[in-house]
Amino acid sequence: MQITRLDPLSVTQTKRHFRLPVICGVSIKKEFTDILFTKAEIKEFTIKYGKKWFFPDFTNKLTWYVVILGAGIILTPAPLKMMFYNWLIDTFNIDLGTHFTFPELQADSADYIVGFGLILIALIHNLFSKWLLLQGSINDYKSAEKINEVDNKLYTEFLELMPSNSCAMYMLEQHDFGNSFEREILRPIDQFVCEWDSPEKQFLNKELEEQRKIFWSKCNEFITLLAKTTSPISGGFYSAVSDRFRNNFERPDWLEKEIRELNRVASEVFMEQQKFIKFVRQKLKC
Q1: Do the domain assignments include residue 265?
Q2: Per the structure, how many domains does the chain have?
Q3: Buried b or exposed e, range 264-280, using 16+ CB within 10 angstroms
Q4: Residue 138 shares a structural domain with residue 99
Q5: Distance in angstroms (rounded) separating the CA atoms of residues 176 and 171
Q6: How far apart are CA 118 and CA 69, in angstroms?
Q7: Number of other residues whose CB lies within 10 A of the CB of residue 188
Q8: Are strands 231-232 and 237-239 parallel, antiparallel or unpaired?
Q9: What is the rounded distance in angstroms from the CA atom of residue 22 to the CA atom of residue 113?
Q10: Which of 153, 208, 214, 231 is the most exposed place for a label (fewest CB within 10 A)?
Q11: Are residues 108 and 169 in the same domain?
């Protein structure tokens, strides 16, 4: 196949007619792709890296490449351009069954227009990508504000039920469950275990919800242990020590073990409640 080369000093005007070769990809069975990646993961990957390459920061490669290309077209002397074009012809000298040549280059003003046009497009593209990033940040901020608003309301409900200075928290911190206690004081913990494991009582913030689950599990452990080891005596009072051992100075080892376990879990519930409140206040800034 004969290809007309361009003379840097004397260029003849011709027209270019050629076809791009078809690039065929390798088909991969659907079953194989489903094992490696789910459709959701592929979609997330495509969107993430599509934004990175098509709407990059100005320091990103794509924007710099376009700017450098435009500047190169403007600053490169015409003879050097002709040498480059000839190199392209030699490089892509593939037998496609057709004859093609590059057109004659007229005045250099066309190159300047192309060069400045590429630079302008790169700058506009960069500004547009910045605008998209700003809009994304604004939307993320609004979404976070809505989540905080919902979680704040739920946290207010929690404080109304179980504040740090409540009688229930004081009993968990200070009381020795080897002695009798008024069961009604622990009613907020019963209510928390019964009502706060439903979707309506879940925080939207994942970290807050994780801490809520930890605290709920500890409260549930305490209430379950309390039901197993204590019984009513009189006047709404409960005790881990039955009438059989109440007047004895020496208690059996298994009873002492149950009392120690009750005191341990009660202290853990109190500490988890304090930890939960501090964590929520840090996250919600309240």
Answers
A1: yes
A2: 2
A3: ebbeebbebbeebbebb
A4: yes
A5: 8
A6: 8
A7: 18
A8: antiparallel
A9: 31
A10: 153
A11: no
pLDDT at 74: 66
Cα–Cα dist 60/73, whole Å: 20
Residues 129 and 211 in one domain: no
Residue 78 lies in a domain: yes
Say if residue 124's pLDDT is above 80: no
Rama region for 11: left / alpha / beta (φ>0; ψ in -120 to 50; rest): beta
Same domain, 54 and 97: yes
Strand order in the sheet with 181-182: 181-182, 237-239, 231-232
Cα–Cα distance for residue pair 109/185, rounded to 1 Å: 89
Among candidate residues 16, 150, 122, 121, the one with its CA nearest the CA of residue 61: 122
- Res. 45: pLDDT tops 70: no
At residue 6, the pLDDT reads: 44
Q: Assess if residue 23 is contained within a domain.
A: no
**Tokens of residue 84, six digits:** 């480059």
Q: Domain check: are 166 and 263 in the same one?
A: yes
pLDDT of residue 11: 41
Dihedral angle computed from the Cα positions of residues 237, 239, 244 and 245, in that order, rounded to the nearest 10 degrees:
-130
Structural domain contains residue 148? no
Provide the pairing of β-strand 237-239 with 181-182: antiparallel
> Each residue of 49-83: pLDDT tens digit?
566 555 555 446 666 666 676 766 666 666 665 66
Handedness of CA 157, 158, 163, 169 (dihedral sign): positive
Question: Are 138 and 187 in a shared domain?
Answer: no
Considering the domain architecture, whether residues 182 and 74 belong to the same structural domain is answered as no
Sequence letter at residue 156: T
